[in-house]
Amino acid sequence: MVGSSAFADTSDVKGPQPVIVAKSGEHCKDDPNCFNRIHYAVKPVARVKPGQKFILETRDGLDSDLDFSSTAEDVAAVDLNRCHPLTGPVHIEGAKKGDSIAVTVVDIEPDEFGTTTVVPGFGFLRDVFTDPYIVHWDLNRLEARSKDMPGISVPNNSFMGTIGVLPDREELQKWLKREQELADAGGAILTPQPVEALPADLCGVDGTAKSECLRTVPPRENGGNVDAKETIVGTTILLPCFIDGCGLFAGDVHFAMGGGEVAGTAIETGGRVTLEAKVIPGGAALQSTMHFEGGSQLKQLAPSSFYAISGLPIKSEGEVPVFETYLGGEKIAPLANLSEDLTLAARNATLNMIDFLVKTKGLTREQAYVLTSVAVDLNIAQVVDYPNVGVTAILNRDVFKEQ
Predict the structure, then answer these.
(1) What is the DSSP string of 264-329?
(2) Engineered SS bond to 148: which of 135, 185, 233, 384, CB 3.0-4.6 Å?
(3) Same domain, yes or no: 204 and 297
């Protein structure tokens, strides 16, 4: 069954006991092993030897109070300044700046409750779905079910939405500069925000480096919020080391996610993540971003039945897509066709899939948006047939079950 191998058998593992980086308190601010901003001066909370397993106890990506009783109004009150609560950093002994680390995902044990939310102002279709919405999920080792989504069963393919390493000062300054330039141009970017920032003494409102602490929403060369659904149990994630010890962190467990995470959230949950790291001397010379590798994991993720819809960079005359506004719309507005625009093609594929689900499955538009976020993959079809590059939305039809 898809998802049944998401928990590795470690009963015969011998050697040193795993290091456990435990969770404590209700929220990240109550937990000395938790932080939510990226800066080279964040101090490690644990040390592990290469080849030694370690367990990170993680929180849901919103660091929220959401539970089975939560409503759309509770979602509207979610403070995105608390994203993402990360466990770590973990110092990998023997890892030096210029090395890389190979981090194998040994096991992920998700919590028994998860949510998929639509937070106003966030998500791929944030201009279309402007009201808050929530789906509550019951999770077990095989599947996610929800009374809010009758007849839907989403298989467990848990992975860490966020895994990365700390930058050095030079990288941090480079990233700050380019992101501020994008913000000045009107681009969508979250610049440093000290409210709810952790560690508070470094990144908070009275922090010594509050203007330098990066938000965790965008992934960068150090990994971070890459949201790579392929990084399930058994895969190995390769990360360049910018500092000695690398400063590995992780969190934001996703029980399942559609490629694209279009609503802005997957099936979000906390969990216990077991990892093992090895050092590759000089490995950073071979990579400038996160890499990952595996064996049969892509087969595990493949549905037994699918339905696909294509998207092209076509729009209405007079429309300026929300992601194009910062570049100026004088040339874009009158056009009905944009050239080589994968984002517009992906948007259209997503909208077409939502319409299909509403018409054929009896879902509300909000339910369809959520399902597209957790069980539909956006795949690039081609990038050469200009102007109309193509994106395909692929629905996993295995999720439709009898309740």
Answers:
(1) S--SB--EEEEEEEEEETTGGGG-SS-EEE-SSHHHHH--SSEEEEEE-SB--TT---GGGGGG-S
(2) 135
(3) yes
* Residue 343: CATH number of its domain: 3.10.28.20
User: Which pLDDT score is estimated for 330?
Assistant: 85
What's the rounded Cα separation, in Å, for the pair 368 and 356? 9
How far out from the chain centre does Cα 205 lie? 26
Decide if 4 is inside a domain. Answer: no
Please write the tens of the pLDDT for every residue from 320-337.
999 998 888 888 999 999
How many angstroms separate the Cα of 265 from the Cα of each of 93, 161, 268?
34, 10, 7
Same structural domain, 291 and 224: yes
Overall pTM surpassing 0.90 (yes/no): yes
C-alpha to C-alpha distance for 80 and 42, rounded to whole angstroms: 21
Instruction: Break the chain down into helix, strand, coil percent, rounded to 5.
Output: 20, 30, 50
Q: Are residues 314 and 186 in the same domain?
A: no
| Residue 11 belongs to some domain of the structure | no
pLDDT, tens only, 99-128: 999 999 999 999 999 999 999 999 999 999
Number of domains the chain is built from: 2
For residue 190, is pLDDT > 90?
yes
Range of the domain at 183: 19-301
Confidence of residue 284 (pLDDT cuts 50, 70, 90): very high
